[in-house]
Amino acid sequence: MSNVILKNVKKTYDNNKVVINSVNLEIKDKEFVVLVGSSGCGKSTLLRMIAGLENITDGEIFIGDKKVNDVPPKDRDIAFVFQSYALYPHMTVRENIAFGLKMRKVPKAEIEKKVQDAAQILNLTEYLDRKPKQLSGGQRQRVALGRAIVRNPKVFLMDEPLSNLDAKLRVQMRSEIKKLHEKLQTTFIYVTHDQTEALTMGDRIVLLNNGDIQQVDSPDEVYNNPKNTFVAGFIGSPQMNFIDGKDLGLDENILYGIRPEKMVKPEGDIKLTVEVDISEMLGSEKIAYFDIGAKHCSAVLSSDFNIGKTLDLSINSADLYKFDKQTGERIY
Ligand SMILES: Nc1ncnc2c1ncn2[C@@H]1O[C@H](COP(=O)(O)OP(=O)(O)OP(=O)(O)O)[C@@H](O)[C@H]1O
Ligand SMILES: [Mg+2]
Q1: Residue spans of beta strands (DSSP E) within the chain
Q2: Which residue of 15, 23, 41 sits with most ligand 1 atoms within 8 Å of its CB, as the best mutation to test the pocket?
């Protein structure tokens, strides 16, 4: 079993600032969990505490039902893949992948077998004798994954492993990491600040803000059933529109949310006319930006519109989310 359990885990660094605020989380065996949130919210700190690279100020961490608070990183049966993959430049791919095993004095034949297996899984077999500088960014990141795989860890921890890659390669590596997860049947905990990466990769998403968990759910649930305005605004691009009730002729004390894709519905029972101030090209569709009352909003449209001209919106009230104006909590 390689489940990971966090119980009331807290972190304050020396400066006494609370960075992780009593987190409770249960990650199941073989699950792919994505920790997502904006810069500085505590994602890396949380991952590093699971790895044992950072002390826990309070609380307990279990890996495979064993309490690991006092277990050093090398004995936690985890492998860590970082954003900067830091390969040894003077070593070949084979030597880079084998390095950790060699340090642990694993027998030579066993090392070679593990390296071959990992190379095959990662499509690196033909590159084993190359040096890192003779590889593309994506191939280098695969070597870094190879170093992790050969250790047969119970849990893979990855901290923004794709953020050094260009956009196209990042999309490709996303599905490669998903496939790797399928093949290895191991628990993956993956950190990113990119909500698209979280939505496309995770079995479940853990959305963090200021050291607090905002929601833990499947991608479908966090997108369709956000618990508060933070989740609703963070997940989805362009982001959800928030509109004051009075500007929709509805309850003044409620803040309404609606996805930009739902602003021009033929069956809409709420009609509004707005003036477009910015437009953005998405490809087959365009985004129109405009004000509704004091809020800047957007709509994703397939029909044409013009900047400085009016645009007729038609909203279906069934598509509206309701939030408490003060707390931001969803009203069901
Ligand atoms: N060693 C440290 N000492 C003091 N404060 C730290 C230390 N490491 C991180 N912090 C602070 O803890 C908070 C969380 O940092 P962390 O690196 O976990 O964020 P993150 O979510 O991974 O951000 P990013 O997306 O930018 O990587 C930040 O406010 C950061 O400044
Ligand atoms: Mg980080």
Answers
A1: 4-12, 18-27, 32-36, 58-63, 66-67, 78-81, 155-159, 187-192, 204-209, 212-217, 241-244, 254-258, 270-281, 286-292, 295-301, 310-315, 321-324, 330-331
A2: 41
